[in-house]
Structures
1.
Amino acid sequence: MKAIVWQGVNKVGVENVPDPTLLLPTDAIVKITSTAICGSDLHLLDGFIPSMEKGDILGHEFMGEVVEVGKAVKKLKVGDRVVVPFNISCGVCDYCVRGMYSACDNSNPNHRMAEALYGATSGGALFGYSHMYGGYAGGQAQYVRVPFADVGPHKIESDLKDEQVLFLTDIFPTGYQAAENCNIIPGRDVVAVFGTGPVGQFAIRSAYMLGAAHVIAIDRVPERLRMAEEAGAQTINYEQEDVLLALREATGGRGPDHVIDAVGMEAHGHGPGAALDKLQQTLKLSFDRITALRWAIQSCAKGGTVSLPGVYGGLVDKLPMGAAFAKGLTWKMGQTHTHRHIYPLLSRIEAGEIDPSFVITHRASLDEAPELYKTFRDKQGGCIKVVLNPWA
Ligand code: NAD
Ligand code: ZN
C-alpha cells in the first residue's frame, strides 16, 4: 500500500510499504477514506520528538471502513464506517475507566522509553507518533491496523460526509477539552485563545458553545485571524500590537478570565511585549521561544485558568511563575482524552450546531502530501487544514 513515511528531520515521503495485518485478536484493519495533517505532525517533521525512525508511517487523524476484524472484536464488523481517536487506549485500566484515555496504562509497550526520555511516562500510545508513544504505524496511508478495536473506533451511522466527522479524531475534541478545562462561567467569562491554527479554531468555537461571553484570538497569520473573526472572535495580530496591552484594553484592565495556549513549543520567538520587556530588564531574565505561554500567564485574570492544548516537550525555562502564583492561576494541560468527547461532539454535529469542515483549506492525494507538509508548516497559501484522500 501507499503511505506517508518519516524519512528524517524535515523529510517526509510517499513509499510503498507492506499492508498491515491483524496481530492480535482485538485488532481491526481499517481501509482509510480520509486522513489529515496535524500541527502535532510538525513536531515530528521538525525533529522535536525523539524516537522517530526512518520509514515510520505518519498520521493520527483518520477514518475509514473496517475491512477485517480479529476473533475477539465484538462491536465492529466488516463494512462499518468508523472514526478512530488518535490515542490508543485499552479501555479497562484504572485511567481509561476514569475517562482519562490518553493516560492509558496498557497500550504503550514503550512507556519506559518515554520515562527515560522525559523523566515521566507519557501515558498511553498514539498512532503514527514515534516509538516512545508505542511505535504504532499511522493513518496517512491506505490501510491501518487499529489495536483495541472495541474501545477506540466510533461508528458513523448517519450520512454525514467524511469531512464533517473526520476531526472528531483529534482537533475538535482537543479544542473542546481546552475550553472545557477553563470552567467558563456562561455569559460572563472572556476567553483568550493564542494560536488560530486548527486547534485554536476549534477552541474558539468550543468556548462559545460553552457560553463564553467574548473570545479574543491572537496570531499573526491574516487568513487564520479572519477565520477566527468568522466565529465571532475579536482578533489581535501580535506582530502589529503589544499583546498584553491589547488584552488589557479589551477586558477593561482585568485580563481575559481564561487563556488557552493553542500554540505550543514552536511559538515564534517574537518580542515578549512591553510589560515583559520591563520585567526582563528588572529581573535580568532571558526569554526564548515559549512566547505564547508567557503571554498566557501574564495576561490571565486573577483566579483564571491557563489551559494548554499546545504541546510541550523537554524543559521550559524562565516562566513568569511569580505572576502565576500571585494571581492564583489554575493550569490544565495534556493530551486530549479523545474517546470521551466523540459521542457528545458527534451529537452536536448531527444537531447542526457546528460543521467542522469549515477549517479545511486544502484537499489532496498522498502523493501531494510531502509538499503540503511544508505549505502547512510555513502557513503558506492560506493553508489552515489539509485533508488527504489515500485513494485519489
Ligand atoms: P498550527 O501550527 O497550525 O497552529 C499554531 C498557530 O500558532 C499558528 O497559526 C501560528 O502562527 C501561531 N503562533 C505561533 N507563535 C505564536 C505566538 N507567539 N502567539 C500566538 N500565536 C502564535 O498547529 P495546530 O494544528 O493548530 O496545533 C496547535 C498545537 O496543538 C500544536 O502544539 C499541536 O501539537 C497541539 N495539539 C495538541 C493535542 C493534544 O492532545 N493536546 C492534539 C492536537 C494538537
Ligand atoms: Zn492531531
2.
Amino acid sequence: MKVIAHRGFCGEYPENTMISFKKAVEAGCDEIELDVQLTKDNVLVIIHDESIDRVTDGSGNVRDYTFEELRKFNVMATFGDKHGFNPIPSFEEYVSWVKDKNVTTNIELKTGHFYYKELEEKVIDMILAYGIEDKVMFSSFNHLSLSRCKELIPKIECGVLVSKSGIGNQGYYVSKFNFECYHPDIEGLNDDIVEDCKAHNVKLNVWTVNDEAGLKKLYDWGCNGVITDYPGFCKEWLKSQ
Ligand code: G3P
Ligand code: CA
C-alpha cells in the first residue's frame, strides 16, 4: 500500500509548503499530495483553499493576488510561527525540486467553485517542461476537470475524488470515463464499494487516514494507497505487518 503524504507532512508542518514536502520525503513517503490553484497573474500556486484566510497571516482570495503579492504571506496553519517563515510555493518551485526525488506526486486540481479553464493546460505544460509525466497523477472533485486532463494527456492516471456521500456504481463510473483510481473519504467506504472497484480494475486511494484502526481497514481491504497527514507513522505501521 502506497503512503501518500496529504498536503505534504501536514500533521507536523504547515500544509502545502516546501518544508512540509521535504519532511514528507524524509519520513519515507511514496507520494506527495498537493493542491493547485491560479493567482491573479496566472501563476500556478500550491494552496488548498480559494481564500488565504485559514492558512496564512493574510486575508482575501488567491485569485485576487499576484504571485509576488502572495509570497509575502506566511503559511502558518496550524502551527503559528513555530516553523518560521514559509511562503506559498509556486508549482514550478515544487516541480523543479521534486523532479529528481524518488517520490511520485498526486496533483489535486482545485477547480471547484471558480472553474479556471486554463488550469489543466498550465499544469500539464509544467509537467512536460520538467519531464515528470511518469511521476505524477491527477485527482479532483471536479470530474470534468479530470476528463479534460484525460483528453489532453491520456497516459497520466486520474483519481476521482468523492466526499463521504460518495457516488453510486463507483467502479463502473470510474472505468466508464477511462479513469484509473477512486479516491473516497474512508467514512464513505465499505465492503461493497471495495468489491465493485476491484471488479472494474479501479485502484483505491483513501483519505484521510491517521490512525491504526483506519490503516488496518485499508490494509485488509487491499487498498492501493493511504492518504495521510502522518506519512512516517504509516510507513512504520506497514513495515510491522
Ligand atoms: O486527496 C484527498 C484529499 O486531499 C481531499 O480533500 O480537502 O484535503 O483536498 P482535501
Ligand atoms: Ca487535496
3.
Amino acid sequence: AAPYPFYGEHQAGIVTPAQDRLHFVAFDVTTGERAELVELLQEWTAAAARLTQGREAGSFGAVGGAPEAAPDDTGEALGLPASGLTLTVGFGTSLFDGRFGLSGKRPAAMSDLPKFPGEQLIPEISGGDLCVQACAHDPQVAVHAIRNLARIGFGKVSVRWSQLGFGRTSSTSRAQATPRNLMGFKDGTNNLKLEDADLLREQLWAGAGDGSPWMTGGSYLVTRKIRMTIETWDRTSLAEQEQIFGRDKGVGAPLGRKAEFDPLDFAAKGPDGEPYIRADAHVRLAHPTSHGNAHLLRRGYNFVDGSDGLGRLDAGLFFIAYQRDPRRQFVPVQMSLARKDPLNEYIKHVSSGLFACPPGVRDAGDYWGRTLF
Ligand code: HEM
C-alpha cells in the first residue's frame, strides 16, 4: 500500500483509517528556551515527513554516516515499508503555562478537564507538554518512529510516559470492518467516520471562528488509559454484558434489532414491556442525542501491559478521542458515563491527557506548530 501523505490541511492519523498498532508518547519539554522548542519542532517535522514515507529519520540514515558519529537513524526499521505510519503531534495544556510565552494562546476549548467521579489518575502517566501518536500496521515501525523522535529531542525533551496498543478498537472509515475491544464487543460501530464530511467539519475540526485562529484545521485530543478488570468481566453473564452496552455481542446489533448498523431505537420495548436498550446502557448514555448532538471520533487501542503481579492481566482500552471542543463533547459524555454507566464496575480510568493537535503541515517549508509560534 502507498504511504499516507504527510502534508495536508489536517494532520494525518485522525481520520486516517485506524491502523492496527499504536505507540503513543507524551514528552516533557526540558529546555526553557522557546527558540530551542521551535527548532525541535522543525527537526521533528522533517524527520516525520521522511519516516511516514518509509524513509530513515535523517539523510545519512542508519549506516550512511561517518563511522565516528552516532547514526541519524536507529536502524530497526531498515528494509521495512512505511506500513501505513502516521505521526500526529499535540500540545498539552502545560505547554501554555508561561515558560514559552504561550499563555495567551491557550485555547478556551482546552480548559482543564474536571475531576470525574471514580477516576484514579496516576500523575506520572498523565498529561505532558507534547504528545506524538504513532500509528502503523507494524509495531516495529511505530516504535522506531517514536524512538527516533525521542533521540532527536535529546536535551530538549524527555519522555514522560508512553503507551503501546494493538488491535485498533475503532473503525474510522466505512471501508473498515468494526474491530473488537478486550471485552469482546465490536467497538466503533457508531463512530465519526472519514466519509461523514459534514459532521467532520461541524464536530471534528477547529474552525477559524472558534477563538483560537492558530488551531484552524486542528483538533483536540483526549486520551484516557482505562484499565479493565477482565477477570470479573469474564465471569459476568452474556445477557448482562449485552445489557451493559445495549448491543449484542455477536454481530453488534442494537438489542432488539438484527444487524450491526440498524439504527438505535431507544423507545422500542421488548415482550416484557421494558426498553430493549436500558436507560443506563453505554450506547444510550454516550449517544449524541443525550448530549445536544455531541459526537466524538474514537480511535482507541487495546493494551495488555503484561500482568500485575496479582495474577491479573494489566489490560484495557487506551481511549483516544478527537473533537472540536472537549467542553461540549468529551466532558459531558464522560461525566454522564462516570456517574451512571454500569460498565464502571469493570473499568478504572488511570491516566488522562488533553492535547491541542494543530493543523496539518502544508509543505516542506512549514512545520508542526508554526501557526502557534
Ligand atoms: C460506543 C465500549 C469507553 C464513548 C461503544 C460501544 C462499545 C463501547 C462496545 C458500541 C459500539 C459503537 O458504537 O462503537 C467501550 C468500552 C469502554 C468505553 C469497553 C471503556 C473501557 C468510552 C468512553 C467514552 C465512550 C470513555 C467517552 C467519554 C462512546 C460513544 C459511543 C460508544 C460516543 C457511540 C454511542 C452511539 O452513538 O451509539 N463503546 N467504551 N466510550 N462509546 Fe464507548
4.
Amino acid sequence: MSQIPVATLGVPRIGRRRELKFALEAYWAGRISQAELLSAAARLREEHWLIQKAMGVTVIPSNDFSLYDHVLDTAVMVGAIPQRYGWDGAAVSLDTYFSMARGSQGRPAGCCHAEGEGVPALEMTKWFDTNYHYLVPEFSPDQEFRLVSTKPLDEFNEAKALGIHTRPMLVGPVSFLKLGKRTDGGDPLALLPRLVPVYAELLRRLAEAGAAWVQIDEPCLVLDLSQDEKRAYAFAYEALAAAGGPKLMLATYFGALGDNLPAAAVLPVAGLHLDLVREPEQLEPALSLLPENCVVSLGVVDGRNVWRADLAALLDRLTPVIASRPGRVELAPSCSLLHVPFDLALETSLDPELKSWLAFAVQKVEELVALSHGLTSGREAVQSLIDAASRALASRASSPRVHDPLVEGRLAGVTPEMARRSVPFSERRACQRERLKLPLFPTTTIGSFPQTAEVRKARAAHLRGEMSYVDYDAFLKRETEKAIRFQEEIGLDVLVHGEFERNDMVQYFGEQLSGFAVTRQSWVQSYGSRCVRPPIIYGDVSRPRPMTVGWARFAQSLTDKPVKGMLTGPVTMLQWSFPRDDVPRETVCRQIALALRDEVADLEAAGIAVIQIDEPALREGLPLRQADRSAYLDWAVECFRLASSGVKPETQIHTHMCYGEFNDIIDAIASMDADVISIETSRSRMELLKAFRVFRYPNDIGPGVFDIHSPRVPPLDEMAALLRKAKDGLDRRQIWVNPDCGLKTRAWEEVRSSLANMVFAARKLREEV
Ligand code: GLN
Ligand code: ZN
C-alpha cells in the first residue's frame, strides 16, 4: 500500500522563537527596512516548509503564512481595500497593508496622512471560537473585486524553487464574504458573483504554475446556514469547478457539518476535510454521502488543544476507513496548527511527567506521521511510538495530579442555593448604599493602572533572579500606594489597587491554582505580532491558598475609600487556557468557580466591601451553533454565580465585560445578577446600552465613557454628553461612571487627564439632577 498522505493545513506562522513578531515590531519601530522584514518572512516560510518536509509531511501548505492575518491577505488579494486607505489601484504597499491592520496614526514617514489625523484600522474580531483575531473585510455596496496580489501564487513558486511542491491554502470565497461586512449593512454574499471570477482566475494561474491541489477553507460550513447560504456554496463551487484549475480540498473545521453535510457533500470538489476531534461522529455519515472518488481528509489530531493523541485507539478506528477507501484518505490535524504552540521541546518550565502528556505543533505532526506509517506498514513499524503514547495516556488517566477526590467531592455537593445570593438585588442595593455611602453616578475604574516599562522591567528582573523577592515586593507596594494616592487625589469613589503584580489576568491566577500549569515559551498568535501563553489546565482545580487577599488588604489599609478586590472569572479563565479534554468544559469551569468562591469569601472576611469578577470572555465562549448556546449560557452563568454568591448582601459584586455585543445574551447577563456590570460602550457612543434599556436591566451598570485603546484624552463635555445619553431610558441611580476597560496599556499622563475629566463629568451630572 502506498503511504497515506499527511497534511498539516497550516503551521504556526509566528515562528519557533516568535521571529515574525520581533521582525514586525522592529519594522514598525523603524529599526529594520522593508527588505529586511520581507527576507525574515521568507526565511520563516522556508524553515517551516523544510521542517515539515524533513518530518515526513507529504501535503505541505503554502500561503498559510501571513505578515499579519490571512483574512486581511485575502481582502488585499481581491482588492477589498476601503477608500480611506487611499489606495491608488496598483500593487498594495506594505504601509497600506499595515494601516488596514493597525490604523495609520503615528505611522512614520511614508504615510500620506498628516500627523494626528490617522486612519482607523479595519475592525478586528475573534476567529470563530478561538482566541485568534482576524481583520473584518469591509465591502462597499458597489464593491468590485480583482486579483490585486498574487501572494498565493508567489509563495507556491517560492516553495517550488526550494524543491517543495505545496498545496496552497486559500480562505474560501463564501466564508470570506460571510466573515466580512458591507458598509451599507447589506448582505455581503450578494457580492459573490463578482468575487468568484477572481478566485477562478487565481486557481487557473495556480494550475499553470503546477499546483495539483489547493486547500480552500470554508469554516463557515460548520455554522447555522440559511437556504440561501447553502445555495451560495453550490453557486460558488460549481463556478470554480467549471473554471478548471487544481483539485480543491474543501476544509471545514471547528465543528460538525451537521445539517450542512448534504449540501457540502454534493459540492463539486475533489476532497473534503472533516474535523473529527470536535465531531468524531460525522465521519460515517460523511463517508456514506460523499462520492466514491472524493478524497477524505481526516482531522483526527486536535489542532485546538495541547494533549497527546491516543495512537492505538486512532489506529483501530482508522484501519477500516483506510481499507474502505484505498488511495482516497489523508490524515490531518482537526484544523490548522496555528492555534497551538510551536514545539514542546522549547518548553523548559514543565516537569517531565506533565510534558509527557502534551503535544504541540511539531509533536502533532509526529503523531500524524506515525499514524500514517502504522496504517501503511502495519502497527509493528511504529510500535514503540504507540506504546509511548499509551503509557503517557495511562499515566495521565490515573495521576493523582489530575484527580483530586476533594475537588470532585466538593463539586458533587454543590447545591442550587450556593449559586444564589441570599436576598434579591433590591434589598442588596439598599444595604450596599447604606454601607458604601456613594454619591449618585459613582466613579471607578476597571482595575489595572499603567503597566509601565518600569513595572515590566522589575518583573523581568525578578523573574531572572536579579531582583530579590523582598525588593520586588517593596517595589510593587510603592506602585500600589502611588496608585491609591493618585485615585484619592483625582477624586474617584471606588478605588482599585492597580494590578501591578499581575503579568496577565489569567496567567496570574493560573500560577497560583492547583491543576493549572503555566508555560514560558509556549506562545500562540493572538493577532498580528501579539502572542499569548495560555495556561494548561491539566487536573482538578483548587486553590491552595488565598491569591489576591494580601494585595487587596494592603491597598485597603492605605485609604478610607472602598478598594475593589479584583478577580478573573471562571469562564474567562477557562476560555483563555488550554483546558483538559478528559472532562467536559463545564466541569473545569465549575471547579474554577469553587476556587474563586473561596477567594471571594476570604476577600470579604478581610473587609473588602466591593469585589469585581471580570468576565470579558463570556461571550466568546458561545458555541458556534444556536442550538448549543443556551446550555452553554446556563452553565457559564451558573459558574459566575457560584463564584460570586457566597457573600453577604452588603458586599457588592461587580463584573466587567468588554468588546460586547449584548443583544443576544442580555438575559444571561441579567441572570448573572452582579450588583454592578461595567461594559465597553464609548466607541459605540452608548449604542450597546440599548440592549440593557430594552431588557429593562434591573441592576447597576457602568457604561464605559472613554476608549482605553486610544491615547486621546476625551474632554469633559464629551463624557458628560455620553452619560446624559446613557441615563436616557435607564434610572439615573443605576449608572456608574468608568472607562471602557483597564488602563494597563496607557501612559500615566493620559490616565491622569482622562480620569480627571471623567470625575468632573460625573460631578456635572450630579449637579444636573
Ligand atoms: N481588570 C482587568 C483590567 O483592568 C480587566 C481586563 C479585561 O477586561 N480584559 O485590566
Ligand atoms: Zn475589559
